[in-house]
Amino acid sequence: MRATQTFPTSVAVAESCWYDTSRWPSWVDGLDRVVQTAAPYPDVGGGVTWESGPAGRGRVTERVVAYAPADGQAVEVADDSMTGHQTVAFVAVPAGVQVTLQLEYRLNRWSPLTPVVDLLFIRRQMTQSLARTLDRFGVRLRTERGPADLP
To answer: Is the pTM of the predicted complex or chain greater than 0.85?
Structure first.
């Protein structure tokens, strides 16, 4: 699943905001607080541990497995209910920067009903969560952007 949006700013500004984990509580859907950022984040080998609110995913860990400045990042992500691979990509476009957030996941618990529950509920919720994250990220970018930040 994936979500993509275009924002009227530069790749550098979008990337700087994305990798600043102190800003995450204002835009990452479901995130309540960042517990720890491990060096050399956002580079390969770094990571972030965060916690959701009471009705969320609990403790989530992200470990960077690929990073290319001005291009994007891939992380292995895990919580009690799933493990997965999440990527973020930044592409310069005439209107600014296109940001794509993509998640591939596997559920940790399996039953005969899991495929149906995943198809009807979980997949839709995860797709909506990616979209909400990008919506809120765009709001954060707009509040920080100045005239010099435009492409």
So the answer is: yes
Residues 7 and 136: beta-carbon distance below 8 Å: no
b/e code 33-60 from CB counts within 10 Å (16+ = b): ebeebeeebbeeebbbebbbeeeebeeb
In a domain, 122, yes or no: yes
Q: Is residue 151 included in any domain, yes or no?
A: no
Count of structural domains within the chain: 1
Read off the pLDDT of residues 32-75 as tens digits, 9 standing for 90 and up: 999 999 999 999 999 999 999 887 889 999 999 999 999 999 99
Tracing tokens 């209107």 back to the chain, one arrives at: 95
Burial class (CB in 10 A: 0-12, 13-18, 19+), 89: middle
Residue in this structure with the two tokens 């100045």, named with its chain if needed: 146
- We report the CATH number of the domain holding residue 120 as 3.30.530.20
In terms of Cβ atoms closer than 10 Å to its own Cβ (0-12, 13-18, 19+), residue 84 is: middle
Helix-strand-coil percent breakdown of the chain, rounded to 5? 30, 40, 25
Number of helical (H) and strand (E) elements in the chain, helices listed first? 3, 7
Which H or E element spans position 48? strand 47-52
Determine, yes or no, domain membership for 150. Answer: no
